[in-house]
Design a protein that fits this description.
Strand content: 35-45%
Number of domains: 2
Strand order of the largest sheet: 2-4-9-5-8-7
Order of helices and strands: EEEEEHEEEEHEEHH
Low-confidence stretches: none
Shape: elongated
Number of strands: 11
Distance between the termini: 43 Å
CATH class of the largest domain: Mainly Beta
CATH superfamily of the largest domain: Acid Proteases
CATH topology of the largest domain: Cathepsin D, subunit A, domain 1
Number of helices: 4
Amino acid sequence: MDKWAITYEYKKGISASIVIPVRLRVKHSDVVTEFWIINALIDTGASISCISNRLANKMGLISTGSYSYGTAAGEYKFLTYTADVFFPRDKLFKDLAVSEFKVRDIDDYDFLIGMDILVQGNMSITNTEEKMIFSFRIPPSGKHIDYQIELLREEFTDEEIETLIKESESLPKNWWD
């Protein structure tokens, strides 16, 4: 698998959301739309990637089916479409089944990048010196980032950390109850 990565720096302080530009092309029947450059929200709460009803209407899209999913507010059924999504630096996610979502007028994005894309790699968000950095890479790096271990290494030796980990493994799974 080819290696690919992007990094975005938000210099205006810490952001409440991560929005990046992508190119989107949607397919229906034998028709393929031109690429549209749009803003996409990174959404770890979305099982699949989604296109806004605003953009679907603007593009005159025809649904390829429907998708039902549940939220804390209840179960919903939305139209689906088939899309190709190009991330910056030309990473293509081809023939994705994307669901429609209802966007608010104040939202500055028309696409949700869901877990169907995000699970294919590693993602990190760091906040230091009044700026936020978002990085995403594919394939996964093969190692986990463990901030807990990083903090422990500031205070303990590797041998002490190993002992702490073994002791915590002996705790019941619901020890915090």
